[in-house]
Amino acid sequence: MNNLVIAVDGPAGAGKSTVAKIIAKKLNINYIDTGAMYRAITYKAIKENINIEDEKSLIEMAKNTQIDFKENNIYLDGQIINEEIRTLTVSSNVSKVAQIKEIREIMVDLQRKMGQKYSVIMDGRDIGSYVFKDADFKFYLTAGANERANRRYKELKEKGHDVKLDDIIKDIQNRDEIDSKRDFAPLVKADDAIEIDTSNKNIDEVVNDIMKYIN
Q: Where in the cell is it found (predicted)?
């Protein structure tokens, strides 16, 4: 593998996306938000009134879906859907969709092709442990559930969403449970990943920590 591949894993709300975007700019490489890919599938299912419990229909839909990243935008079937995939409805259902083995296989195949085409920093739940086991650098970002929920709450409120902190705490805990206990490629820290607890660190401090290792 000639391209640089950086894997950033961790639970929901640990700061993966924000940190990865900044590092992508610093290193002038492509940022791939794999969680957004599963959100895109979830968003499309909800939009097309496909039952989240109907795995067969979800898999067929995923096979006929185009997902791409350009200039920090995610495209679903040719349309930018950056904001549409960040609603609480999508957040509450994405882990159910992401645990379906066949959908993960479709997404992982896409992710690996991206890493073969160009240098990437990719964040998700299973990048270092499954998607790119031979990544050049692996990081695992974590923080307490309440801290992660608070961050997500502030983020959604700033975007004008009407949300309750208690609902987000329950959602985060539920997603942690599903993500870490799914049978296929669960959320797990890779043995050779560098763990960074972001609870008491701001974004700049986390970015600096990661850049020290890369440099």
A: Cytoplasm
